[in-house]
Specification:
This protein is α+β, with helices and mostly antiparallel strands and 213 residues long. It is built from 4 helices and 8 strands. The strands form 2 sheets. Strands 3, 4, 6, 7 and 8 form a 5-stranded antiparallel β-sheet that branches. It has a 3-stranded antiparallel β-sheet with strand order 1-2-5, with no helix packed on it.
Length: 213
């Protein structure tokens, strides 16, 4: 939808922008081709369901009824002019050219919908959520980093009574390879964490997550 609207808005720009007929036609063909590809995909999904129903009827249907012919796929009407792959690479390059034009203003950018919304990140309320599992004799810890740089991960295990910093984690997964306090004896491990941005602790401390290993 954005591509179709963008093509229509570009077509309304005055001649002073220097957008020639070939470029206008290329943008139109790209928009038509991509829109048709989505319509074609939906038709293919519907045909897949029909084919699946036909298959199920052949496999489990009553033996007293002869099925009709196998389903036949009918492509959507109005196939567009074929275009080269890379539609959105081309449109991205074209948007870059528009923004370098002397006539370009923020008002024009908003009309063409080529100015993204500002992203405001509030780290004061960010709180990690940890996922724990035991695999290969080690505790695996996973979290969603989002816009943070990583985690300050704290742990308390077995007979320990105080959470201690275990690691500064910059990837989205961490493996705790420490052996149990008593070899061969199961122990409870607890973890909690803060998000980290530029090596500084931010946000709210996570809940305590525990696992027995």
């Amino acid at each position: 939808m954005w591509l179709t609207n963008f093509q229509a808005a570009v077509a309304l720009l005055p001649n002073g922008w220097g957008i020639g007929a070939p470029q206008q036609l290329s943008l139109l063909n790209d928009a038509n081709a991509f829109r048709y590809s989505l319509v074609f995909l939906e038709a293919a999904k519907a045909f897949s369901k029909t084919s699946s129903s036909s298959k199920d009827a052949l496999r489990n249907g009553p033996q007293t009824v002869t099925l009709q012919a196998f389903p036949v796929f009918t492509p959507p009407a109005g196939a567009p002019t074929p275009v080269l792959p890379g539609i959105f690479q081309r449109v991205t390059l074209f948007v870059g050219q528009l923004k370098k034009n002397a006539l370009y203003t923020v008002t024009v950018g908003k009309a063409l919908k080529i100015i993204g919304s500002d992203i405001v990140i509030d780290f004061s309320t960010a709180q990690p959520v940890l996922t724990l599992w035991f695999e290969g004799n080690h505790v695996h810890i996973k979290y969603i980093r989002g816009h943070a740089d990583g985690l300050l991960l704290y742990s308390m295990r077995g007979t320990e009574t105080v959470f201690m910093l275990l690691a500064t984690v910059t990837k989205t997964t961490f493996i705790d390879t420490r052996p149990n306090e008593v070899v061969g004896q199961a122990e409870k491990r607890q973890y909690r964490a803060f998000f980290m941005v530029a090596d500084v602790m931010v946000g709210i401390e996570s809940a305590v997550f525990s696992i027995t290993c």
